[in-house]
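User: Design a sequence. Structure:
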């Protein structure tokens, strides 16, 4: 299927309606996803990115609605991960004269995935250009956004930025543009995408946005490699501002409480802490594991300043689902968060201590030694938990 993005630039990607997990089951894709590829028609023809291997036939069909694939002159690989590069071997067979363009790192990546190939390569760096005839492509290296091989492709005549994984969302729809669906849905998925994919690289995101501005790059359309295309205001301006806000770690004085409970005691304390936060007039969301999805909880945390984590003690440590959440958090290293731990124990208890250590390892500012209690909480401990929540809310507002 082909859809025009701007004049003589067409989406020729694929819609994956059924995928529900990404990145080795670390990221749930409740709304599916797309693999976006873009065909640029000029005196020379360029294909920017491809699709996951199982969708190759769908992409090739879309290309054939426009041109014979053998006429493709350049295949641009913005990033080597197989959800974007899986169809490259087929395309290079169909267009054996085509030049494969990417960073030196992407050449390494593709060589590892697909083995030695007799492909014609052109390695590019920031500022390098390729003429297509009436128009040209400019390349901007973007290492660690989100792989070392990542880059952006820019079509200056159309003010079109093709940034691969930046500005993406995992969402499968029959629409191709962000302004064609409910604004809340697309921004919800964009926030989840940033939180689970790009959050660890926030400082690099800010630097890259500043670099793009200094290069005098004007942007009218952003066409990422997953999800919907951003065009015009307010949507385009909104997503650029959101990325600046997220990368700076700006957040609201609200809290996320995430916990795992064995016999319900830790859950009761979680609810009491939430009550205290609400009594102080602050917002809070409460998420129990494994009932809630970890990647959804991480998205909730993106624009919340506070994180409270709780667990019953098992084998003198935290429970397994909350442990997995904390491992995710250590990798993401969120900016500008304050936190504290709570939980129950029986004959021995280190869960609260271990949670506090994990928060520190995730760069969260631990503002309380934690709230620990034995077996089931009594009325006094529930009252203490409410006060614990009230105190945390006051620290949230002061942070």
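Assistant: Done.
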């Amino acid at each position: 299927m082909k859809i025009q993005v701007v004049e003589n630039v067409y989406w020729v990607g694929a819609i994956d309606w059924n995928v529900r997990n990404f990145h080795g089951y670390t990221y749930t894709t409740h709304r599916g996803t797309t693999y976006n590829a873009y065909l640029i028609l000029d005196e020379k023809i360029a294909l920017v990115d491809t699709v996951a291997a199982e969708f190759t036939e769908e992409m090739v069909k879309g290309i054939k609605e426009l041109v014979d694939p053998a006429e493709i002159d350049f295949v641009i690989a913005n990033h080597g991960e197989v959800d974007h590069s899986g169809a490259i071997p087929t395309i290079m067979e169909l267009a054996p004269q085509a030049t494969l363009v990417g960073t030196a790192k992407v050449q390494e990546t593709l060589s590892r995935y697909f083995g030695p190939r007799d492909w014609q390569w052109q390695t590019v760096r920031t500022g390098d250009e390729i003429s297509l005839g009436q128009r040209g492509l400019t390349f901007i290296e973007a290492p660690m956004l989100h792989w070392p091989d990542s880059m952006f492709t820019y079509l200056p005549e159309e003010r079109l930025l093709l940034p691969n994984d930046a500005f993406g969302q995992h969402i499968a729809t029959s629409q191709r543009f962000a302004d064609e669906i409910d604004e809340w849905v697309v921004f919800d998925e964009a926030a989840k995408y940033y939180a689970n994919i790009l959050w660890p690289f926030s400082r690099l995101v800010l630097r890259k946005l500043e670099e793009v501005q200094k290069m005098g790059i004007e942007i009218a359309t952003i066409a990422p490699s997953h999800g919907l295309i951003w065009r015009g205001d307010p949507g385009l301006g909104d997503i650029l501002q959101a990325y600046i806000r997220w990368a700076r770690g700006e957040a609201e004085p609200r809290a996320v409480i995430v916990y795992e409970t064995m016999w319900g005691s830790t859950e009761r304390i979680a609810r009491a802490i939430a009550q205290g936060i609400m009594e102080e007039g602050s917002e809070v969301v409460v998420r129990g594991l494994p009932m809630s999805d970890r990647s959804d909880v991480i998205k909730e945390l993106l624009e919340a300043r506070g994180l409270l984590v709780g667990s019953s003690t098992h084998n003198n440590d935290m429970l397994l689902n909350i442990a997995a959440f904390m491992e995710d958090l250590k990798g993401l290293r969120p900016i500008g968060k304050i936190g504290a731990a709570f939980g129950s124990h029986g004959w021995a208890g280190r869960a609260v201590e271990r949670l506090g250590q994990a928060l520190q390892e995730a760069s969260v500012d631990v503002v309380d030694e934690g709230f620990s209690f034995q077996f089931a909480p009594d009325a006094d401990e529930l009252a203490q938990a409410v006060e614990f929540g009230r105190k945390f809310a006051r620290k949230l507002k002061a942070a």
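The two ends are 50 Å apart (CA to CA). The chain is about 35% helix and 25% strand.
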